């Protein structure tokens, strides 16, 4: 009996020694997975870039910060810089080019609910424009104003996504809006979108297209859109044409 017990003890020791590396690996994997989950739920910074191009083009880059975390109610801040250009006047042969630069620093609050997230922001903005035509180049005075920014990302059902974004600024007397709806397919959301924009110069546009939102490429998420838009200034009728748009955001 004593010999059998000694053999059992030796066998248990050997099994413990052999299983020790496996237990360590499992523990390390569990810790790594838990850390990744914790990091994903405590994000508080997002870098973003966007480009919208048709008869006109405009790009924006910036950062969005949450005082606490993006998955909770709380204060948020957004800083952005944008540049763009368009051709105006002359009917089919534009005679004026307008280049614009915009900057804004906004603060506000986000409301996180089971159905989605709603964010309201407000703050100062600056606008600088340059006109170029047959008579030369004319820089316009720097304009200061107030910008209001609101957006909603909602999940009406587990398989759908609805978004609404509105930006209004007094520096250029401009407004921009986008509405979209998407159905979850292959890990992203696909569906229709409507865009629109106006400003104090008489410029206006609206468009209808299709989008793919929340596509993943490494750590980045992006949205790709394309469609048809109607665009024009106060001196010309709306012109139809294609447009494409790309938005990328990287959580840090």
From TrEMBL:
Database matches in InterPro entries: CBP_BcsS
Pfam family for this entry, one: CBP_BcsS
Assigned keywords, A-Z: Signal
Signal peptide: 1-38
Domain of life where this protein originates: Bacteria
Name of the protein in question: Cellulose biosynthesis protein BcsS
């Amino acid at each position: 009996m004593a010999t059998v017990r000694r053999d059992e003890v030796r066998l248990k020791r050997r099994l413990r020694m052999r299983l020790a590396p496996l237990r360590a690996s499992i523990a390390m994997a569990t810790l790594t997975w838990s850390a990744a989950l914790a990091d994903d739920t405590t994000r508080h910074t997002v870098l973003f870039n966007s480009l919208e191009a048709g008869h006109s083009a405009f790009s924006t880059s910036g950062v969005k910060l949450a005082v606490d975390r993006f998955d909770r109610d709380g204060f948020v801040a957004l800083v952005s810089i944008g540049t763009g250009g368009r051709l105006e006047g002359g009917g089919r042969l534009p005679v004026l080019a307008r280049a614009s630069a915009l900057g804004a620093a906004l603060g506000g609050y986000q409301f996180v609910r089971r159905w989605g997230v709603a964010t309201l922001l407000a703050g100062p903005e600056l606008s600088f424009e340059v006109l170029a035509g047959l008579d030369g180049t004319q820089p316009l005075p720097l304009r200061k104003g107030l910008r209001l920014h609101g957006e909603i990302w909602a999940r009406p059902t587990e398989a759908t996504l609805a978004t609404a974004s509105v930006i209004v600024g007094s520096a250029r007397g401009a407004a921009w809006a986008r509405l979209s709806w998407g159905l979850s397919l292959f890990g992203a959301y696909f569906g229709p979108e409507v865009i629109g924009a106006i400003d104090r110069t008489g410029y206006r546009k609206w468009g209808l297209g299709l989008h793919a939102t929340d596509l993943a490429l490494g750590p980045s998420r992006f949205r790709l859109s394309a469609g048809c838009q109607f665009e024009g200034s106060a001196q010309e009728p709306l012109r139809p044409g294609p447009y494409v748009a790309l938005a990328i955001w990287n959580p840090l």
